[in-house]
Design goal:
The structure holds two protein chains of two kinds. Chain A is mostly helical. Helix content of chain A is 71%, strand content 1%. Chain A has 16 helices and two strands. Helix content of chain B is 45%, strand content 13%. Chain B is α/β, with parallel strands linked by helices. The chains are: A mainly alpha, B alpha/beta.
Chain lengths: 324, 472
């Protein structure tokens, strides 16, 4: 007993020295692993410096009073920045407007983009040129675009009111400077810029549908709206979901257009989340700004999670239906 | 002297016209035109003394535009002649970003700039950040020069640039300011004369005058002011509040920091602002000062009882109504505490703590702030370059010299003796101005009631002051 425990090796291992060791499937050598880490390192360092550290810093900042204008009074205040935000009428106003904005502009862009994609999917002369032209708004700098549209919607001498007044004989509007019209005017501009993007992605989806399917539908006399609702939309559903996701996240983060055209005004009529957060920064409340930044991040994550969950469930039920 | 000024100005305008023919951006053209004004003046400039012993590179940060960065660019060709071994670089950003950016630079102790032009309302914050340099030791070798400066720049205005604040005597000189400004009444004299009305003295008269001249059918709106949310609306409110005898705090001078925005004066101020909106240019709810000035220049707005405005309105290249725009004191309220109180601001030049090349930086600041006396290294051409580029002045002598061509300067001359500082002189001023401005903008746009807006403005001001430990 004692002999075995002190020195004798089990019989099946005794001869193992003579047998060459074969690596476990999927195992990597230390050398390979080291190379992999080295190659990953620059990326990880950049990520730490540009994302993780600032996020951690913001996290700490969100629990502090730290005025930009007076660093001498900086101190930890616990959850108070978050409490102040929850008590703030403008915080809720900005969240409400941001969610409303995201839902409305994405819905409008999806509907218009889909109709535009149908139009572009037809075989017609000049379709290629048209496709190239309609994508132009996507590439226009948001600042240049915002300024241009601001001039167009200028209430006295702007083009929009000239058309409305001289062309249509209607009363002039204070497009961007009245609380009831400012947000919808911003929506018009956003839709002008992003609908072509949505249309082109959807068009790419439509053109990936096999011609056999289209042909079969045609033989079965499935045409018009039925063709699109029964054949096209189910087939390009993953593409639609991705476009919605991209546009939804982009819309929640809206800043440039909002800032250039109204700065959140008149009053707080177009005060969306990012512009309000920037206003808080302008006023020097760094802690409050960081707290709000985190809340926006959480909001985006909640919406994305809900969306991805819905997408996953829809895909799952579609697969079950296909299998049956 | 005047003939030579006019000739230099005409030459500069020809150069501008030449540039306009080329393919240049508007901003580039404005910068070039400013430099052209200076170059035209420098062509005739023979400095009495050339300081070849001073050298090095200095970087000066200022808000972009005619009044600030372009004024510096206009003076540069003159400075280059006096200081041939100094390389001066002017860096500029739009004002809406520059004010916050300067604070951010200073908070991070940036050494990128040797001289910075900053708005007066930020100086208490700069002081709290330790960003200001006492200019005393740099001024000391030039007692005669400084005496001339002191005699010429109105004391009320000059003392604004001293820190720390408090009852007299003021602290050290933190900045010198060739630039000056005040919130004034801007009115089209031709329109007022035609309507047979005088410049309003009280706020109620101002509302009546606006009602009288309002002509929306011909796209001529009576009233226009910067009512964009945040600090622009804050300035509008504060200007009216002061003229009613109110203030943000019970007693700033003696340290009673109880907010008094929710008061009879506050209510009257907001009432007046709301009344005036009936006659406002339809875009003004989102306007900053630039848009207000453009609207004045285009002839779409005729009157503002209280605005920062610009001397450029009297420039024939900027507005066809340049001769019609006149400036006067702001109205006052109807109570015994009321008075004409012009909010006075302006931009001062300071040497940031972390900047370098101090002697050269001060030489540049001193040059910019010099008067007309050539025996003190000054020259009338310095002020001419600033005015030619679109700047506005703090020296009384140069205001007088240009008064017949710039009614704006007549307004400034009236305003300086009754001026009050444009914001509470505390680091929190900008934050408070922004918070109150948000409430005011909401009230004026019917998003909140007047009572709620005043109550919330008071509450937010108190919170800002609490956070800074004023009530501990």
């Amino acid at each position: 007993m004692s002999t075995t425990s002190q020195g004798t090796r089990p019989a099946k291992l005794a001869g193992s020295d003579s047998v060459p060791k074969s690596p476990r499937p999927g195992a990597v050598s230390r050398q390979t692993r080291r190379t992999a880490y080295l190659m990953l390192a620059p990326c990880v360092i950049v990520l730490i410096v540009l994302a993780i550290y600032p996020m951690a810093f913001s996290g700490v900042l969100s629990f502090k009073v730290d005025p930009l204008y007076n660093p001498n009074v900086a101190r930890f205040i616990g959850w108070r920045n978050f409490e102040d935000l929850f008590d703030d009428f403008r915080f809720w106003q900005s969240i409400r407007l941001t969610v409303l904005w995201a839902l409305l502009v994405v819905s409008i862009q999806m509907v218009l983009g889909f109709l535009l994609a149908i139009l572009l999917d037809r075989k017609m002369r000049g379709a290629g040129l048209l496709r190239s032209l309609i994508i132009i708004p996507v590439f226009v700098s948001p600042v240049a675009m915002g300024l241009t549209w601001r001039f167009i919607f200028e209430p006295v001498a702007g083009l929009a009111n000239w058309i409305v007044n001289t062309g249509l004989g209607l009363e002039k509007y204070s497009w961007l400077s009245h609380k009831d019209t400012a947000l919808s005017t911003l929506m018009i501009v956003d839709c002008w810029q992003w609908t072509p993007f949505v249309a082109l992605i959807l068009l790419a989806g439509m053109q990936s549908i096999s011609p056999e399917i289209s042909e079969a539908a045609r033989l079965d006399r499935i045409r018009g709206a039925t063709y699109y609702t029964r054949i096209v939309i189910p087939l390009i559903r993953p593409v639609i979901m991705v476009v919605i996701l991209i546009r939804l996240v982009d819309s929640i983060r809206i800043f440039d257009l909002n800032f250039i055209m109204t700065k959140g005004g008149p009053g707080s009529a177009t005060l969306m989340a990012s512009v309000y957060d920037y206003t808080i920064f302008e006023q020097g409340h760094l802690g409050l700004m960081a707290a709000y930044g985190f809340l926006i991040l959480i909001l985006i994550n909640i919406i994305v999670a809900i969306f991805l969950n819905t997408l996953y469930r829809a895909e799952k039920s579609a697969r079950v239906a296909d299998a049956n | 002297m005047k003939d030579r000024d006019i000739q230099a100005h005409d030459n500069a305008m020809k150069r501008i016209a030449h540039h306009r023919k080329g393919e240049v951006s508007r901003r580039r053209m404005m910068q070039t035109s400013a430099a052209a004004v200076g170059a035209a003046l420098a062509a005739d400039f023979v400095p009495k003394t050339v300081h070849a012993d001073v050298g090095g590179t200095i970087v000066h940060f200022a808000s972009s535009g005619k009044r600030l960065a372009n004024s510096l660019r206009a003076v540069k060709p003159l400075f280059d002649k006096v200081f041939p071994n100094v390389t001066l670089e002017v860096v500029s950003k739009p004002m809406s970003e520059a004010l916050t950016q300067i604070n951010t630079y200073m908070r991070s102790k940036s050494d990128a700039f040797d001289v910075i032009t900053q708005d007066h309302a930020q100086f208490a914050a700069l002081d709290a950040m330790g960003a200001l340099t006492d200019m005393g030791p740099y001024i000391e070798p030039f007692p005669e020069w400084y005496e001339d400066y002191k005699q010429d720049v109105p004391q009320r205005y000059r003392h604004m640039w001293n820190v720390p604040k408090g009852p007299a005597p003021p602290g050290y000189v933190a900045a010198l300011a060739p630039d000056g400004n005040a919130m004034m009444t801007f009115y089209r004299r031709d329109v007022f004369e035609k309507a047979g009305i005088k410049v309003p003295v009280t706020w109620d008269e101002a509302v009546e005058a606006a009602k009288e001249i309002h002509d929306p059918e011909h796209e001529r709106y009576a009233y226009c002011a910067a009512m964009a949310r945040n600090f622009w609306a804050g300035y509008q409110f504060y200007g009216i509040l002061r003229s009613w005898g109110g203030d943000y705090f019970a007693d700033e001078v003696n340290g009673d920091w109880t907010p008094t925005i929710e008061s009879e004066e506050g209510y009257q101020s907001l009432r007046i602002l709301t009344e005036l909106q009936k006659y406002a240019h339809p875009g003004s709810a989102n306007f900053g000062e630039d848009e207000v000035n453009q609207t004045f220049a285009q002839g779409h707005a005729l009157y503002s009882p209280l605005t920062w405005g610009t001397a450029t309105l009297n420039d024939p290249t900027y507005s066809e109504f340049h001769e019609d725009w006149h400036m006067d004191l702001t109205p006052k309220g109807n109570t015994p505490k009321s008075d004409h109180r012009a909010l006075t601001g302006g931009f001062g030049q300071f040497m940031p703590t972390w900047g370098g090349n101090r002697e050269t930086a001060f030489a540049w600041i001193k040059f910019l702030n010099s008067g007309d006396r050539e025996d003190l290294d000054g020259s009338p051409l310095i002020a001419d370059a600033i005015v030619g580029a679109g700047g506005q002045l703090s020296r009384a002598s140069t205001l007088s010299r240009w008064a017949d061509r710039k009614p704006f300067f007549v307004g400034l001359q009236k305003a300086y003796p009754v001026c009050v500082v444009n914001a509470p002189v505390i680091p929190e001023a900008y934050a408070i101005m922004g918070a109150v401005g948000e409430e005011v903008a909401d009230a004026v746009n019917n998003i909140k009631s007047t009572e709620d807006a005043l109550k919330d403005a008071n509450k937010r001001t108190k919170r800002i002051m609490e956070d800074s430990g004023y009530y501990d």
